[in-house]
Amino acid sequence: MYEDEQAERLPFPTSTGFSTRAVIAGAIIVAATAFAIGLTVEAARHKGGNSTGYGTGAPADVDLSPLWKAWRVIDEKFVPAAVASTSLATSTEDANQKRVWGLIEGLAGSLNDPYTFFLPPKENQQFTDDMSGSFGGVGMEIAVRDQVLTVVSPLKGTPAERAGIRSGDKILQIDGEDTDGMDISTAVSKIRGEKGTQVTLLMLREGWSEPREIKATRDVINVPTLTTTERDDGIFIIHLMTFTANSPELFRSALREFVESGDSMLILDLRGNPGGYLEAAVDMASWFLPTGKIVVTEDYAGHANNIVHRSRGYDVFNDNLRMVILVDRGSASASEILAGALRYWDVAKLVGVNTFGKGSVQELVDITPETALKITVARWLAPDGEQIPLEGIAPDVEVKVSDEEIKDGKDPQLDKAVEMLLKAQ
User: Fold this and answer.
1) How far is CA 47 from CA 31, 205, 247, 383, in A?
2) CA–CA distances in Å: residue 268 to residues 203, 226, 254, 281, 323
3) Active site residues
4) What is the pLDDT of residues 398-419, one digit of tens each?
5) Which range of residues forms the domain containing residue 169?
6) Largest Cα–Cα distance of the chain, in whole Å?
7) Do residues 400 and 287 share a domain?
8) 68, part of any domain
9) Structure pTM?
10) H or E segment at 258?
11) 220, 255, 278: which is the final residue of a domain?
């Protein structure tokens, strides 16, 4: 299972090594979990069989006669307005199969859920390829927010970041093509491409009076998972970019480095982190929480028993620890789970702006050997039992960053976190 959207960054492994259920708390796997432009997958593929109980037949209480009537009308009456030479070779069998894929796409679309969609053979193969290696893109995660294609987060050190793309930017056009009604898989396929080629995006940002074109040159996307910084003022910084299968081990090493530094003040930077493996977030939270404390709950709304994820109780820090977590609109899914749990249990304060608001769980189910359905199956509940809000988690201290400050290399959010920690000594 996953939990995130389709994006455009490097792929996660196909197994977690943690749980046979492999839940993803990712961000936003940008709608299909393809890091659209170099996508990332936040959970392992669920090899599901037929879980509907319907077998190969239709539900008993659904009248499908209108569907078959429409099918017959198409067979009997449809004449293409224009026939391209390439379409003459299309067989009836191929055409009928495309209709079936279209029916499933429409069925998924009727749920009006931006994280539920069908992956036909080509898109499904692309998804699989994304999980197994690097690819060309611009390095950002995208999702549908309020029916508009939206940047969840540009990945650090990628063409998207260098081009000035920011979390929350609305993508109105891709190479001149309107994105209105465009699904994530289609958007990802249009943004990705050969290394060295350019994609032109028409973007709208809060505070802009009109859309602007941003050009980014595609490259092979390889994103670091974690970096550490030891400051002279006694503050240690861990910047976590993604929640991959090996993130818990890297995080443990970073915490060991923090302890050995002798510092007692910690900043965890989750800005621009769209999420990843749920198990990674639970493991990381366990370093700060006693055994049994709730980190997050998967709420299946009665379709299955809820699953409560609790701290494993590593709990190695004492009351001397002072901790601040940096968040922004690019912090999603697993980032929101970790940040929300540590704030709820009074381990850390949050500084920045509202997070993305990815409060649902997705699962990838094989429909045929060549196709799959990515479907929302549960909601994330914070330790207080409330769903992660759609508007995102509000920080304890709000600090916005302007375009000018970014251009000048300033970081008022980090400055505020440092100020809070030094005052708390």
Assistant:
1) 19, 39, 24, 30
2) 30, 10, 11, 13, 8
3) 333, 358
4) 999 998 898 888 999 999 999 9
5) 7-48+116-220
6) 79
7) yes
8) no
9) 0.76
10) helix 247-261
11) 220
